[in-house]
Amino acid sequence: MHVDTPIKVRYGETDMMGVVYHANYLLYFEDARIDFLDALDFSYSEQIEGAGFMSPIHAVEIQYKSPLRYGEEGFVRTTIAKNLPMRTVYHQRVYRTGSDPETEHPLVDALVTVCVVDRETFKPVNLKKTFAELYAKYDEVAE
Q1: At 6, is the pLDDT very low, low, confident or very high (cuts 50, 70, 90)?
Q2: Alpha carbon 16 to chain centroid, angstroms
Q3: What pTM, to 2 d.p., does this model score?
Q4: Which of 15, 35, 109, 118 is catalytic?
Q5: 8-state DSSP, 47
Q6: What is the C-alpha R_g of the chain?
Q7: pLDDT 10s digits, 113-137
Q8: Phi and psi (nearest 5°) for 57?
Protein backbone atom coordinates (compact mmCIF):
# COMPACT_ATOMS: atom_id res chain seq x y z
CA MET A 1 0.00 0.00 0.00
CA HIS A 2 1.17 3.51 -0.71
CA VAL A 3 -0.28 6.96 -0.12
CA ASP A 4 0.62 9.95 -2.31
CA THR A 5 0.58 13.38 -0.64
CA PRO A 6 0.70 16.45 -2.91
CA ILE A 7 3.32 19.21 -2.51
CA LYS A 8 3.21 22.72 -3.92
CA VAL A 9 6.52 24.44 -3.26
CA ARG A 10 6.02 27.84 -1.65
CA TYR A 11 8.58 30.63 -1.82
CA GLY A 12 9.26 30.50 1.93
CA GLU A 13 10.25 26.83 1.65
CA THR A 14 13.16 27.58 -0.67
CA ASP A 15 16.72 28.73 -0.13
CA MET A 16 18.68 31.44 -1.96
CA MET A 17 19.01 29.16 -4.99
CA GLY A 18 15.23 28.85 -5.32
CA VAL A 19 15.21 25.16 -4.43
CA VAL A 20 13.44 23.51 -1.51
CA TYR A 21 15.63 23.93 1.57
CA HIS A 22 16.75 20.43 2.57
CA ALA A 23 15.15 20.44 6.04
CA ASN A 24 11.74 21.33 4.61
CA TYR A 25 11.45 17.84 3.15
CA LEU A 26 11.01 16.67 6.74
CA LEU A 27 7.88 18.83 6.96
CA TYR A 28 6.55 17.28 3.75
CA PHE A 29 7.28 13.83 5.17
CA GLU A 30 5.43 14.67 8.40
CA ASP A 31 2.31 15.68 6.46
CA ALA A 32 2.60 12.52 4.37
CA ARG A 33 2.79 10.26 7.43
CA ILE A 34 -0.40 11.85 8.79
CA ASP A 35 -2.05 11.23 5.39
CA PHE A 36 -0.86 7.61 5.55
CA LEU A 37 -2.48 7.14 8.96
CA ASP A 38 -5.67 8.82 7.71
CA ALA A 39 -5.77 6.37 4.79
CA LEU A 40 -5.71 3.56 7.35
CA ASP A 41 -8.61 5.28 9.14
CA PHE A 42 -6.38 5.96 12.16
CA SER A 43 -6.31 9.56 13.39
CA TYR A 44 -2.94 10.67 14.77
CA SER A 45 -4.42 13.57 16.73
CA GLU A 46 -7.37 11.65 18.13
CA GLN A 47 -6.03 8.15 18.62
CA ILE A 48 -2.36 8.74 19.42
CA GLU A 49 -2.17 12.24 20.89
CA GLY A 50 -5.66 11.91 22.37
CA ALA A 51 -4.52 8.82 24.27
CA GLY A 52 -1.53 10.67 25.77
CA PHE A 53 1.18 9.63 23.34
CA MET A 54 3.40 11.25 20.69
CA SER A 55 5.36 9.85 17.78
CA PRO A 56 8.77 11.56 17.44
CA ILE A 57 11.34 10.87 14.77
CA HIS A 58 14.02 8.44 15.92
CA ALA A 59 16.22 8.47 12.79
CA VAL A 60 16.26 9.85 9.25
CA GLU A 61 18.26 8.71 6.25
CA ILE A 62 17.81 10.95 3.20
CA GLN A 63 19.33 10.96 -0.26
CA TYR A 64 18.83 14.21 -2.18
CA LYS A 65 19.08 13.46 -5.87
CA SER A 66 17.37 16.37 -7.65
CA PRO A 67 15.61 19.46 -6.26
CA LEU A 68 12.09 20.74 -6.38
CA ARG A 69 11.93 24.50 -7.06
CA TYR A 70 9.65 27.35 -6.13
CA GLY A 71 6.26 26.99 -7.83
CA GLU A 72 6.75 23.36 -8.78
CA GLU A 73 4.38 20.65 -7.71
CA GLY A 74 5.23 17.17 -6.60
CA PHE A 75 4.13 14.45 -4.23
CA VAL A 76 5.47 12.29 -1.43
CA ARG A 77 4.85 8.57 -1.84
CA THR A 78 4.73 6.91 1.58
CA THR A 79 4.93 3.20 2.36
CA ILE A 80 5.83 1.13 5.41
CA ALA A 81 9.35 -0.25 4.96
CA LYS A 82 9.53 -2.03 8.32
CA ASN A 83 7.05 -2.61 11.12
CA LEU A 84 8.69 -3.35 14.46
CA PRO A 85 7.12 -3.40 17.93
CA MET A 86 9.17 -0.39 19.08
CA ARG A 87 9.66 1.45 15.77
CA THR A 88 8.06 2.06 12.41
CA VAL A 89 10.22 2.75 9.35
CA TYR A 90 8.50 4.72 6.62
CA HIS A 91 9.87 4.77 3.08
CA GLN A 92 9.16 8.25 1.75
CA ARG A 93 10.02 9.35 -1.78
CA VAL A 94 9.45 12.68 -3.50
CA TYR A 95 8.48 12.90 -7.18
CA ARG A 96 7.48 15.72 -9.51
CA THR A 97 3.79 15.80 -10.41
CA GLY A 98 3.32 13.77 -13.57
CA SER A 99 6.16 11.37 -12.75
CA ASP A 100 5.59 7.64 -12.73
CA PRO A 101 7.05 6.16 -9.52
CA GLU A 102 7.01 2.72 -11.12
CA THR A 103 9.49 3.75 -13.84
CA GLU A 104 11.23 6.92 -12.60
CA HIS A 105 13.72 7.55 -9.82
CA PRO A 106 12.63 9.77 -6.93
CA LEU A 107 14.02 13.28 -6.45
CA VAL A 108 14.44 12.58 -2.76
CA ASP A 109 14.52 9.14 -1.15
CA ALA A 110 14.20 8.74 2.62
CA LEU A 111 13.78 6.21 5.38
CA VAL A 112 12.17 7.86 8.40
CA THR A 113 12.04 5.89 11.63
CA VAL A 114 9.55 6.92 14.29
CA CYS A 115 8.60 5.54 17.66
CA VAL A 116 5.69 6.13 20.01
CA VAL A 117 6.39 7.64 23.42
CA ASP A 118 4.36 8.49 26.49
CA ARG A 119 3.72 12.24 26.42
CA GLU A 120 4.48 12.69 30.14
CA THR A 121 7.62 10.56 30.48
CA PHE A 122 8.83 10.51 26.86
CA LYS A 123 9.54 6.80 27.37
CA PRO A 124 9.03 4.62 24.29
CA VAL A 125 6.09 2.26 24.29
CA ASN A 126 5.53 -0.98 22.44
CA LEU A 127 3.32 -0.17 19.42
CA LYS A 128 2.23 -3.81 19.16
CA LYS A 129 0.84 -3.68 22.72
CA THR A 130 -0.29 -0.05 22.98
CA PHE A 131 -1.84 0.29 19.51
CA ALA A 132 -2.40 -3.32 18.47
CA GLU A 133 -4.89 -2.35 15.75
CA LEU A 134 -2.45 0.05 14.10
CA TYR A 135 0.42 -2.42 14.40
CA ALA A 136 -1.71 -5.09 12.68
CA LYS A 137 -2.65 -2.68 9.89
CA TYR A 138 1.03 -1.79 9.37
CA ASP A 139 1.86 -5.50 9.18
CA GLU A 140 -0.78 -5.95 6.47
CA VAL A 141 0.50 -3.11 4.28
CA ALA A 142 4.27 -3.26 4.85
CA GLU A 143 6.43 -3.53 1.70
Answers
A1: very high
A2: 26
A3: 0.95
A4: 15
A5: I
A6: 16
A7: 999 999 999 999 999 999 999 999 9
A8: -75, 135
User: 124, 117 in Cβ contact below 8 A?
Assistant: yes
Tell me which residue of 143, 139, 117, 134 sits closest to 39, measured CA to CA.
134
DSSP state of 16: T
In the chain, DSSP assigns E strands to: 3-8, 53-54, 57-64, 73-83, 88-96, 108-114, 116-118, 124-125
At residue 109's C-alpha, the angle toward residues 42 and 102, to 5°, is 85
* For the chain, counts of helices (H) and of strands (E): 3, 8
41 is catalytic: no
Question: Edge-to-edge strands of the sheet including 57-64?
Answer: 3-8, 73-83, 88-96, 108-114, 57-64
